[in-house]
């Protein structure tokens, strides 16, 4: 009996170890100390930071530079609320991050990119790496320098070997996914002309729609972000020459002019956008959307109808991407947000699929020009492979 029990515990222990190995590898933090002299700093003036897992073998000259997400701050008050957190100060960041999914070093779980150099750039400026204001108010000590952070991090990586890159991807999730879109062509221009460069935006396609109260809240919010951070000069000129700078924070007004190949991974029912653009707290004073936003299975028929309209609006806005053969997309019908950085949604036996294809295979086939991938899922709840998010009721929204 005792031997049998020990055997059972050993089996459980082995399963746990294998699961942990599959789910991620811890990677330490690197502070870009020399960036401070260039004024390339977080909101609080601390140096920018990233986590770097070096490539190996055939991937030694291949690079993924991924930008972290975390919403935005649109005025002094909201930026102050972030300044002394990990979203505004490298002093408050975890010294280790777990790399899995698109960043895994396991061939089984990340077959096309496991041996690349993989970098996660921490987000601490609140502007999707677009801001650049020289003046610093001594009363707040707020630094709006996201664009300088972007440049300083890329410079640091070039000096550490990326100048020899054969292949490179700029990617990002959420606000970092927007950064990957806005900086796609810029990133390519900073690498050698011989480097094969492509861009990957995960949950970065934020759309300009009215909320459930009829207010154009996200448009006003983005205009305030751009104004506060002095972002206009760092947004694509192909857009700012035609539209007000705040509108150039919306991918639908930028993507048609991107010349570098780019792939979009997005949920048509993006959970962050449902929670913060379609039904933000300010538009729902009685909290009727609260349970629905936490778990899509708790939505009323009227709420689901509003979400189906949001999907229609999303797909209409996504039409701006066009039909260029260099662009690809995986738009699933899930209630989700950021799907490349976690193993369960990137590549696992039960990962979301479109046309029997996982996100990992779609992105790999597209990057290596094996096969184009452009698929849009049917409407919720038609896809049984979805990993629909269920949120903690105490979780704060990113904005």
Automatic annotation (TrEMBL):
<keyword id="KW-0961">Cell wall biogenesis/degradation</keyword>
<protein>
    <recommendedName>
        <fullName>Pectin acetylesterase</fullName>
        <ecNumber>3.1.1.-</ecNumber>
    </recommendedName>
</protein>
<comment type="function">
    <text>Hydrolyzes acetyl esters in homogalacturonan regions of pectin. In type I primary cell wall, galacturonic acid residues of pectin can be acetylated at the O-2 and O-3 positions. Decreasing the degree of acetylation of pectin gels in vitro alters their physical properties.</text>
</comment>
<keyword id="KW-0732">Signal</keyword>
<keyword id="KW-0134">Cell wall</keyword>
<dbReference type="InterPro" id="IPR004963">
    <property type="entry name" value="PAE/NOTUM"/>
</dbReference>
<dbReference type="GO" id="GO:0009505">
    <property type="term" value="C:plant-type cell wall"/>
</dbReference>
<comment type="similarity">
    <text>Belongs to the pectinacetylesterase family.</text>
</comment>
<feature type="signal peptide">
    <location>
        <begin position="1"/>
        <end position="24"/>
    </location>
</feature>
<dbReference type="GO" id="GO:0052793">
    <property type="term" value="F:pectin acetylesterase activity"/>
</dbReference>
<keyword id="KW-0964">Secreted</keyword>
<dbReference type="GO" id="GO:0071555">
    <property type="term" value="P:cell wall organization"/>
</dbReference>
<dbReference type="InterPro" id="IPR029058">
    <property type="entry name" value="AB_hydrolase_fold"/>
</dbReference>
<dbReference type="Pfam" id="PF03283">
    <property type="entry name" value="PAE"/>
</dbReference>
<keyword id="KW-0378">Hydrolase</keyword>
